[in-house]
Amino acid sequence: MMTCVLAALLLQDASGDAFRAQIDALKAPDVAWRGIAWRTCLLDGLKASREAKKPVALWVFIDRPADDARC
Amino acid sequence: MFSKEEVVRRINRDFIPVALKAGKVANPPDDPEGRLYREIGRSMPAPQGIGVLNSAGKVLAWSLMFDGDSDVTAFFEACLGSFRESPDAARPLPVRRWMSYPGRKLEDAPDPGVALDVPAGHPAGRRCPATPGWPEGTLACRVVGRAFRDGKPVADTLRQEHYAEDRFELTPDAQRALASGEGRFRLPEEVARALVSRAFLGVLDVNPLGAPGGRNERQVLDLWGRREGALIHLEGTSDAAGGHDRAGGRTDGRLWSHEVRLSWRGLIEVGEGRIVRLLAVAEGRARLKWGNERMFPADASEVSRLPGGRPIDFDGEVRFGVEGRPVGPDEIGAGPQEGGPPPAIRRKMERLQKALAERGGRGADRVRGFLERFGPLMKEGRFEEAEALLDQALRSLPD
After folding, report:
1. What is the pLDDT of residues A14-54, one digit of tens each?
2. Looking at the structure, do residues B168 and B317 belong to the same domain, yes or no?
3. Distance CA B145, CA B150 (A)
4. Nearest CA of chain B to the CA of A36: how many Å?
5. I need a labelling partner for B216 at 20 to 30 A (CA). Which of A45, B26, B125, B190 fits?
């Protein structure tokens, strides 16, 4: 029943608000794998390494292209 | 692995985290920054892995996997010791390497013997190789997918069969083809395929429309547009099924099947032959099984089988959302799609890496010989020859 109501709303949705709300509802705000703020620029990472006197933890990966940083 | 609380805490506290795409390490630009990438690639035991660098860009250690959960933090702890010994280019150290830390050690790689030039920034007018640009007018689309149970989203967002995010781009030509539609019309295949090919959960290797080492068995892209002025209402269904491909008798042992059936709705706003915004949702069911006949025991730690993954058996409700917008001014530029290596090379690199891991490193010496010739070919853009070398490397692996 809810699905039918939602479908009817979506069909009438010329502004896109209902679609956007449904997409937003799918997103998980605080996924654990975003707990590490990976830098994607090697030069930027090495500069930070020199300044902070910390080594670089390097992850070379083959994965989905978004920041879907799990393995 | 990077979702474990202790690992996250240690990396954030003691390290500068940097993530690089394997394709960039294998095919770096020909400049000082590219030489840093190349030096990273020189000592890598496989096309992907976890390592530690000092501040001069020199690799201190690599590991592809870890014997157990606690060995991940132990690896990073040991690397802190190496960093204290060699924080910069002043003191050479060999690169310590493991197939799996600490139980399966590989031969050390020698120090490069020279200090690498670390540029202060990218060459004038060049983008960072990690953030390639796109042609003006490209539509950047973000995808979110989620498993549902009893009408509610599954709470777990760690496992990719429960939650995934992805992105894809639609070319200006594909948008133009869509924007020319009038009345009720079938979506151009490039647009329909782009949408459906990203609407799946699980790792990249289980794309039912086409995955490395996979075979598509069914594809129905029955997506339609209905034009109302500047708006196109999207509706229709898709049905995709695929699985492992045994053609030729050589695989890395993967066994999988994946079916995704979806109903789609959406709204696309067009103007001047381009998409101004795209919003789409899809819901339906998916059945996914993933495993490997050479897979480690089911009770082994997930970090001990990183490249091959873990068994997946999912059968349930799934929903997807897609949002598209034109790329912004800071995203426009030359990108990897221009003159880059063919996708088959990336897929074969991935197969090779997984096959090596599943054999516990057996055959690595033979493969290394091929990879030493692979890098220069990629650098010169001789992709066909590079791909042939990868084929030889795959065939050289012991059963």
Report:
1. 789 999 999 999 999 878 777 898 999 999 999 999 999 99
2. yes
3. 16
4. 6
5. B26
Its ipTM equals: 0.75
Residue A61 lies in a domain: no
What residues of chain B lie within 8 A of the CB of A38, using their CB?
A: 17-19
Q: CB–CB of B15 and A55 under 8 A?
A: yes
Instruction: Tell me if chain B has a CB within 8 Å of the CB of A40.
Output: yes
Q: Residue A9 is part of which domain span?
A: 2-52
Q: By residue range, what is the domain housing residue B179? A: 139-331
Interface mutation vs chain B, best among A2, A11, A19, most B CBs within 10 Å = A19
A12 part of a folded domain: yes
For B345-368, write each residue's pLDDT tens digit.
777 887 888 888 888 778 887 787
A21 to chain B, any CB pair closer than 8 A? The answer is no
pLDDT (mean) for B360-381: 74
Q: Which residues pair with B18 in a beta bridge?
A: A39, A58
Residue A70 belongs to a domain? no
Residue tagged 């996924």 (tokens):
A31
Strand, helix or coil at B172?
A: helix
Spatial separation of the C-alpha atoms in residues A39 and A69, rounded to whole Å: 11
Question: Which among B16, B281, B319 is the nearest to A54, CB-wise?
Answer: B16
Cα Rg, chain B, nearest whole Å: 23
Q: Is residue A64 part of a domain?
A: no
d(CA A12, nearest CA chain B) in Å: 10
Q: Is residue B120 part of a domain?
A: no
**pLDDT of B336 strictly over 50:** no
Give pTM, 2 decimals: 0.76
Q: Do both B200 and B288 map to the same domain?
A: yes
